[in-house]
Amino acid sequence: MCSAPNRHDEPALNSWLGMTVNAADHHSKYLAKAVAALTPEGRKRVDELLDQLAVAGRSHEWVVRFAMAREAEADTGQTNASTGEEPGERLTEKELDIVTTGFMTIRDQEPLDDVADWANAVLALLADERA
């Protein structure tokens, strides 16, 4: 019998459980759930991480906008806080690679479970951008 996927890989876990849903819609709901579940300590940590992303990506307008959109979500606890265009849709392939690598690092190394889960939800959305 095969073992269950890593707890941070919700799409793989859903597949393993035999669940089928519209991926983009499901990932949006997953992000909304993860954002709502952030603790005050988790929100503070997310803000720190997104500030780092914005500084590191300052030469890439859409990376900075992506970080700002995620920060607005974390600050309000809602994923519908941002208005207008989703910055993730404007990231180049190179920018997607950079942002994805950063969020994989957060997911895999972050000691706060709520922050790691949030990073995994962002990764699911980034995977949708590649599709």
Question: Which structural class should the secondary elements be placed in?
Answer: mainly alpha
> What value does the Rg take, in angstroms?
14 Å
- Biggest beta sheet summary: none
Tally of strands: 0
N-to-C SSE string, H for helix and E for strand:
HHHHHH
Residue stretches low in confidence (pLDDT < 50, at least 5 long) are 1-5, 16-21
CA(first)-CA(last) distance:
31 Å
Query: How much is the average pLDDT?
Result: 82
Number of helices: 6
Helix content: 55-70%
Outline type: globular
Q: What portion of residues belong to β-strands? A: under 5%
Note the topology.
Blueprint: H1 10-16, H2 23-36, H3 40-56, H4 61-76, H5 93-109, H6 113-130
Helix pairs in contact: 2-6, 3-4, 5-6
Keywords:
mainly alpha, disordered N terminus
Could you characterize the architecture of this molecule?
The protein is mainly α. The chain has a domain at 40-130. Helix content is 68%, strand content 0%. The chain contains 6 helices and no strands. The chain has helices at 10-16, 23-36, 40-56, 61-76, 93-109, 113-130. It starts with 9 loop residues before the first helix and ends with a helix.
What's this entry about, in short?
The protein is mostly helical. The chain is built from six helices and no strands.
